[in-house]
Design goal:
single chain, 106 residues, mainly beta, two-stranded antiparallel ribbon
Length: 106
């Protein structure tokens, strides 16, 4: 018997990317790439079921991106003269995802 349900996962963990600090005139302050974003971690999980409809094989996938809902920013206010200096933003949270794929004829 062929299995029809798959569990898919991806895990991504790494140090934060470096960035430089600038002043209000976009002049470099300190050494280039002297600061780093916080460490990054993301875990994605999905279940996929294969079905046959009208003689075609289909795959239906439902899953979560960033299931841990970890704070993983990808933007920072790097202007040392800003009142929001070193404030991180552009954070994606947990997301439910879905996908339908055509696999071909049986």
């Amino acid at each position: 018997m062929r299995k029809k349900v798959d569990l898919a996962y991806t895990a991504d963990w790494h140090d934060g990317f470096p960035f430089s600090v600038v002043d209000q005139n976009q002049g470099l302050v300190g050494a280039p790439d002297s600061r780093r974003f916080p460490g990054y971690f993301s875990l994605n999980l999905a279940l996929e079921r294969r079905i046959e409809i009208f003689g075609f094989q289909w795959a239906v996938r439902v899953g979560f991106d960033d299931i841990t809902n970890r704070h993983n920013p990808f933007a920072v206010d790097n202007n040392i003269d800003s009142p929001h200096f070193l404030q991180y933003s552009s954070v994606d949270g947990r997301a439910l995802t879905g996908l339908i794929r055509l696999l071909g004829r049986k």
